Amino acid sequence: MRLEGATVLVVDDEPDLREVFSAWLQQAGCLVFTAANGAEALEVLDAQKIDALVSDIRMPVMDGIALVQAIYERKLVIPSIILVSGFGTLWPLEALGHGVYTLLDKPLRRKDLLLVLQNSLMETNINS
Questions:
Q1: Closest CA to 82 of 15, 10, 6, 33
Q2: CB 45 within 8 A of CB 76
Q3: I need a surface site. Which of 4, 59, 72, 99 has the fewest CB within 10 A?
Q4: What distance in Å separates the CA atoms of residue 121 and residue 101, rounded to the nearest whole number?
Q5: pLDDT per residue over 6-22, tens digit each?
Q6: Which of 79, 71, 70, 35 is nearest to 55 (CA)?
Q7: Contacts 24+ apart (CB under 8 A), 28-34
Q8: In terms of C-beta density within 10 A (0-12 exposed, 13-18 middle, 19 or more buried), how is residue 103 classed?
Q9: How far is 87 from 23, CA to CA, in rounded Å?
Q10: What is the mean predicted confidence (pLDDT) over 93-98?
Q11: pLDDT of 51
Q12: How confident is the model over 46-70, as pLDDT tens digits?
């Protein structure tokens, strides 16, 4: 799957980051949905088919790890899940085996996010 035309859900409790990530993805041709936490993200996932999820890990209400676990438990199919964290590179063990493609460190650069997202969508398309 190409990045252009992909539906992407951006989940982050920081409004400025949600806006920046959304703008980057929209400029790349994605249809973007946003949520401020995992609980809001699940509401979007109930209503929309999503090709990729870009989610912060640490958020109030429902964090990124709990969101990934809920997606896994609900058997929702999201071809690409990318977690983002500003708190170091420790891989959250809870995310292993639940479809997470990679973990990116904040601050993110536009080209890095787009490249990783493109690669993950291409790989999941090949493997599906």
A1: 10
A2: yes
A3: 4
A4: 10
A5: 999 999 999 999 999 99
A6: 35
A7: 28/3, 28/4, 28/114, 29/3, 29/4, 29/5, 30/3, 30/4, 30/5, 30/6, 31/5, 31/6, 31/7, 32/7, 32/8, 33/7, 33/8, 33/9, 34/9, 34/10
A8: middle
A9: 24
A10: 58
A11: 96
A12: 999 999 999 999 899 999 989 999 9
Q: Which residue has the tokens 């983002």?
A: 84
Asked whether the beta carbons of 70 and 38 are under 8 A apart, the reply is: yes
Cβ-contact 97, 68 below 8 angstroms: no
CA pair distance 70, 97, nearest whole angstrom: 13
The tokens of 89 are what?
């590179």
Among all chains, which residue has been given the structure tokens 């509401």?
Answer: 43
Interval 83-112 mean pLDDT: 75
User: What are residue 90's DSSP bridge partners?
Assistant: none
Between vectors from CA 97 to CA 109 and to CA 128, what angle results, nearest 5°? 80
- Cα separation, 39 vs 70, in Å, equals 10
List the structure tokens of 107.
């601050």
Residues 6 or more apart in contact with residue 25 via CB below 8 angstroms: 8, 10, 32, 54, 113, 114, 117
